[in-house]
Write a structure and sequence with these properties.
By secondary structure, this protein is mostly helical. It has helices spanning 13-21, 24-40, 54-68, 80-84, 91-105, 112-123, 126-130. 57% of the residues lie in helices and 0% in strands. The longest helix is centred in the first third of the chain and has 17 residues, at 24-40.
């Protein structure tokens, strides 16, 4: 099982396009900052981050999003399932998290198709985050 997305190979132009569309490293940094500002202001999600080292989390999320969007970055954090194990994150919380991401993506100069493509990539990890068996 992969930890998270690896950076896209050079031939994966479509993958790399998402990373470039959001603004490369600068855009990913802005995305993570805006996104987590929204998540931490959500009374249903904020408790999941009460004891988190936010500097480390933001650094890992910048890597994760850069890699997931086809950027020249490999994610170096824990396996997604391991990092979220035992945190009590269910599908409702995951969906709420993803909705914040979708809302945050609307602040960027992305097409609707690009926003949905980014969400689709994040949704690939629902089972690892929630601890649900694969295929559910």
């Amino acid at each position: 099982m992969d930890k998270a997305p690896k950076s896209a190979p050079a031939s994966a132009g479509e993958d790399r396009k998402l990373y470039e569309s959001i603004g490369g490293a600068t855009g990913v940094n802005a995305l993570v900052e805006r996104f987590y500002a929204n998540v931490l202001n959500d009374p249903q999600l904020a408790p999941f981050f009460e004891h988190a080292r936010m500097d480390r989390l933001r650094r890992m999320q910048r890597e994760f999003f850069a890699a997931a969007l086809g950027g020249p970055v490999d994610y170096s954090g824990d396996h997604i399932a391991h990092a979220h194990h035992g945190r009590g994150i269910g599908r409702a919380e995951f969906q709420r998290f993803v909705q914040h991401l979708f809302d945050t993506l609307a602040e960027f100069r992305l097409t609707e198709n690009e926003r949905y493509a980014i969400i689709e990539r994040i949704n690939r990890y629902v089972n690892e985050v929630t601890g649900a068996p694969a295929g559910t």
